Structure formats: structure tokens, C-alpha cells
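Final report, results section. Input specification for complex C-07:
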Amino acid sequence: MSGANNGAKMLKIENLHVTVGGKEVLKGLNLTVDQGQVHAIMGPNGSGKSTLAHVLAGRAGYEVTKGTVTYDGQDLLALAPELRARKGVFLAFQYPIEIPGVGNLYFLRTAVNAARKEQGLEDLDAVDFLALARTKMKLLGMPQALLERSVNEGFSGGEKKKNEIFQMAMLEPRLAVLDETDSGLDIDALKIVAGGVNALRGPERSMVVITHYQRLLDYIVPDVVHVLSDGRIVESGPKELALELEKKGYGWVHETPAGGAEAR
Amino acid sequence: MNEALTAKDSYAEAFARREQSAVSPPWLGALRKQARARFEALGFPHTRLEDWRFTNPAVITRTAFADAAAQSGSLPAVPSLGKWDRIEVALVGGRYEPALAHVPALPGGAWVGGLAAAIANPVIADRIARTLGTIAAWQERAFVALNTALIDDGVLIHVAPGVVLKAPVRVVYATAGDGAPVASHPRVLVIVDRGAKLTVIEDFRASQTAGDLVNAVIEFDVHEGATVEHVSLLGDAPEALHLGSVFARLAPGAHFASRSIALGGRLTRRDVHVTCNGEGGEIDLDGLYVAGGDSLIDHHTTADHAAPSCTSRELFKGVLAGSSRAVFNGAVIIRPGAQKSDAAQQNQNLLLSEDAMIDTKPELQIFADDVKCAHGATVGQLSEEALFYLQARGIGADAARAMLTHAFAREVVNRIPHAGLKADVDAIVAERMNTLTGAKS
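Structure output:
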């Protein structure tokens, strides 16, 4: 790790164009996230928010036709999804899937040890791992019994979202991308999840929080807010921008397409 | 054609040796003779027979095998299992091998040992004479006839009324060959009396030697209210030839579960035939087949409801990679008068490559009107979504595939009631999934 060095570029996306199923969804997206910062990306449905999240994680089916993504000085797009994860990129899925037959505990230990191996660290043994997992679950108010189940199998919507943040807490990524982590959560669950996310904020870790609603940003307060519209960042500003958006609606940014910070 | 003749003739020596066998009470001599005549009349099977339509047995029927029973050599190693209480017996080339047996003091009324020795013992001989060959369909199936024509040793397991044998019995099958192809025809007879309980594991791993044929037959006579749990285990041996037949006859209220775990082999054909002869019998037939390379694994099952109010439950799952092939043929017969029969059959397959192929065929013969009979078959691929989820957490593509195929297979493994055996089989299956998907263990 490069150490706490605020101001260093954790993520730099330049002129990113992505097509999905032959249709261009991202149309020249620019975004720079410094180390230790939390950036929120807001935007209406269909603006390309989830596409951005999936492209960063390396999902197949998203074709990058132009542009670059640099993560911690490396060409992120050249890496297989598992390598991105091992190097510290984490995607909290909007819709975490159920994987019957794969035990939660076994799955997570394999994932953690894959990342440790990449960093030249020894495997965590089963006992240490379990102790660590129990501590982190408690912070998120998750029943320990969930560890014994298959990945997300039979979990409620809220438990699935908590499980994503729990995995993030175990994996300690350097760049976390949270894709609509607030969707489907009631206010109590939202507070717990936000608390879990905030506990992970630190000078070495950057976060990209993708959301449709301002509500989440009351609890995870971003350093910078971006507005994504039609595949481009059309507005960037301090956290107050989210409140303004909430008041005026997304229609407001469409009227000022030349807007702001991303004009280069 | 000449090759086939040579192959068939190659058994003449084995037949002649059995005629000289020291284990030849008149009833056994007669059984062998009838079975041999039946084998000669039936001839080797071929793909023009419905029963062998998808599986060409030529690699077996055109090879002249030496008689494994005539071989001697050093004792083969017994494949490992975890440390839990069990009774161990072993057949090497079909012959009972006392040096590999571990039979602790059994509860009164239980018998586990060599078949030849039991036939020579007046305490049990009559029971064997009345049962052996009355359950296995040697009149109809050439390889079963061949096995029956060559009986002179094997394993006998007998559990007397009401006796519960807590420790599972493992039958280890092994081949001690010198390199030239040999065929063994091991035979096991299991008699479980009224209300008795037994678990039998057939471990074929040490018998799966390259180029050799094992043609095994096991018969279960399950009496009223008795419970039998049977697991057969075949490992991954790309050049092994295996024919395995399981026959069970169930009296009223008997419960018979048979689970076939088959993880490879050049040609593996398993026939599991269970007949409910009494009211209220319960049949569980499960299977897991895992094939890669150019392996072929064929399961033919029959749940024969010959009495009313019996249930049969069947789940067979397959994972196929490379250019492997698998066959699942599940026959359910509901005989006239077998009202309130309840049969359900599922066959699910995961194809990991475009060249792998499955032939799946339910075969329902229903001659009663008040019955429930459900069946279904699926063929699919691994979920791309699940693969990506695992990869997005840092798990390599091969390891992720191994994890997901293992998860798919686990549903079958989890049905094994014995905790120790279940854990062992689970670990063996996990290891097999690693080799199948190219993941490191």
C-alpha cells in the first residue's frame, strides 16, 4: 500500500464510452476520485449508474469502446474481475444473488485469503477468521446464523444488503463502489448499513456511492457529489449539490448540460 | 465379429475354473450352469438393444480379459476414508481377502464375511442357497448372467430380525493385476431381516485400474420394516471399465436408499433395480455423476412398484465437462393393482463444455389409475451471474466454477445420512470438481 497520501489519485476515469448490447450507455464519462475521498454519483434511472459500477468491477457484456480507467496507477480495464478484487476494488451489488450450496463462511474465507495472497500475506486460519467475522457481523446487527447458510440464500432484502457491507468490512478494499446500497432498505436498516460504511471510511480508502436518492447521503456524507445524466457527468459540486437536486429534481440538470466541473 | 468371439471365448477358461471350484454345493453348481447357459443365449449386449442404445459396450465386449480370480499379487492399498466406526471387508479380484478385513465383535445375529466361507457354514448356507440369484435379474441381463455364472466367492452380509448394525459396512473392491487386462465379477449378497437396520458402502476406487473390467453385482433382500442405506463410490479413473448392478427386493414397509456417486471412468454403467414387493415400501434413489475427458457414465434405474402404497424418490445430478457423455434412464413401473403409488423422479445436468452430452430419458410404465407420478429433467450451464459474483470477490474463474459445480453436486451428497461418510464423500467430490474445472486444490 502506498500509505496515507491525500490528494493521490485512486481512480481516474477519462472519456469512458461503454456499449451494452450494441447500445451506447456511457458516452464520455470523466471522473477522478482522490485517495480517502467519498464521491456520490446521483442520476435518474437509465443514466448509466449501474453500468459504471459493473464496468469498474469487470462484468462481461459491457464493451468499452473508448477511454481509460486508471486505478492506483494501473490500467484497471486490463485486469480480470478477480484480480481487480484482489487488488482492492470492491463492488457492493445492487441485487446480491443467492448461491445455494456455497457456504457463506467458506466463500468469504476463500475471498479474503485470495486478497491476502495477492498482498503477500499468510492465509487467515479458520479460527481467527471466524472470530473476525463475528465481530464485524455484530457491528452490522447481523445474526451469526447467517454465516452457516449458503451465500445470500433465504436472506431478506435488508440482510442481503448488510451482507454486502459485511463482505466489504472483511475484505477491506481500497476502492469501494456501492451500487444503490440504499434501495429496498427501511430507515433503520439504512442507518445500520450507513454506519457500517462510515466505519470503513479512512484516509487510505476511497468510495464511490451510487444512488438515486439523496436520503442515503444524509448518513454517508460525501466529499463530492456528481450528477450523471445520459452517460456523462453533467454537474459536480460539494455535498450541498445533493440537496439542491432533491429540491429541484433531475430535470434541473438536463437544462444545464454544459454544467461544470467536468468540462475539460 | 471375430474379436467378439475371442472375447466371449476368453471366459471359457474362467467357466472351467469355476467347475473345479471347491465351493460347489449342488445348488450353486446348478445356478452357475443355468446362468452360463443364459449368458450364452443372450450374448453380449450391443447398441441395437434399447437398454444399450446410448452406450456402446464394444470396449468391453471386444476385449479378451484374463480372469482376475486367477491372479495373485501383493495386497492392494485400501482407499482412505475418515476416522469413524465401520466394519471393513474387501474383495480382491472378486475373492474375499481376510487380510484387508476389519470385522470387530458384531452384535448377535449379524454376519459379515466371505461368501465362500459362509456357503461352507451350515448355520447360514441354506439361507444363502434360498436367496442368492433370486433377486438379481440374471435371466434377462447378459453381464449379470456372466457374473452369476462365475460366482465362487464374494461377501455375505446378514442382519437378523430387529438387529441394528450401527457401524456401516464398507465393501472395498480391488484389482490386483499385472498389467494385462483382467475382468473381475465380484458378488455381494445382503440379507436384512424384519426390522433390522444396515448401512453398506461399496467402495470401488481400488478396483478402477486402467484397462481392467469390474462387473459387480450386489443383491439386497430387505425384509418387512427393515431399513437399508446403500452408497456406492467410484472415483475418477480415466481408463477404468465398470459395470455395476444393484438389485433390491423390498418386503412391506421396508425402506431402501441407494446412492450412486460416480466420478469418472472410461465406461461406467450402473444399473439400480429396486422392486417394492410389499405395501408401504419406500425407495430413495440418488445419484451424482461427474465426467470429464471422454468418459462415459450411464445410469439405468428402475423403481418397480409391484405393491400398493409405495413411494419412490429419485434425484440424479450430473456434471459433464470435456467431451464426456452421460446417460440417465429412469424407469418407473407401476404394476396393475399398485394403487396409491407415489413416484417422483428428477434428473438435473450441468454441462461445462459444448462437446459434453447427456441423454436423459424417463421411462414410465403405469398400469394403475390411482397413482402420483412426477418426473422432470433439466440441462443447463453454470450461472454467469453467480460466477461473476464470486469473481468480483477475488475468487479465480476456475475456482469459482469448482465452487459452483460442487454446490450443484452437494444436494445429492447431503442426502447421505451418515455424517462421517457424508463429509468424506463431500471432500472427494470437492477434489474432483477442482480437477474437472482446472482449479488448484
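Chain B has a mean pLDDT of 95. Chain B has two domains: 2-278, 384-441. This concludes the modelling results for the funded period.
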